[in-house]
Design goal:
heterodimer, A: 6-stranded mixed sheet, 5-stranded antiparallel sheet, B: mainly beta
Chain lengths: 111, 118
Amino acid sequence: QKEVEQNSGPLSVPEGAIASLNCTYSDRGSQSFFWYRQYSGKSPELIMFIYSNGDKEDGRFTAQLNKASQYVSLLIRDSQPSDSATYLCASQAGSARQLTFGSGTQLTVLP
Amino acid sequence: GAVVSQHPSRVICKSGTSVKIECRSLDFQATTMFWYRQFPKKSLMLMATSNEGSKATYEQGVEKDKFLINHASLTLSTLTVTSAHPEDSSFYICSARDLNSGRNSPLHFGNGTRLTVT
């Protein structure tokens, strides 16, 4: 069974700190990886995606991918209270390129 | 950016009735759309893959006769929950990808439908 695992948290960090979110996946056929942010009662919104080994930076966010270790992470620098949400990691595989989601990590940034 | 419109956003129905949820891609075409279900404090679980002009592909454990999917055009997929029961109460979310986008392009999500069956 294809799985994406995340630490459910909750994870709390003080405002201005770096939040580190981790994710592992079991399907070596996964091609791309996505981080979504979901506020309570809302639909997921895309933060970043990555498909090559290494780091990818976009503003305060950095995604890291290590295919050998089957590991994906998301770093949020200078965390803000508005970053408080559930962060979902997803892997993409299959002919239809469907996404498999992890259970999400609840992040709270304390003012 | 790519927009996926989902309607209704919230619906309350009685047990035994059917509810139809629409998912439209507003500024792009999609041969494939995905229907997810999310229970409170749980992750998104893929229910089925909707294929334009052909039958949907259902995930294991999802009853195709209960969750009817129709993908009649490149911009519209519908999910009908038939003979709804209280345990069908959930947050249903559709998503789609621009058929002209690259291999690693992301899915775009609708705003979801909160279904409550009384």
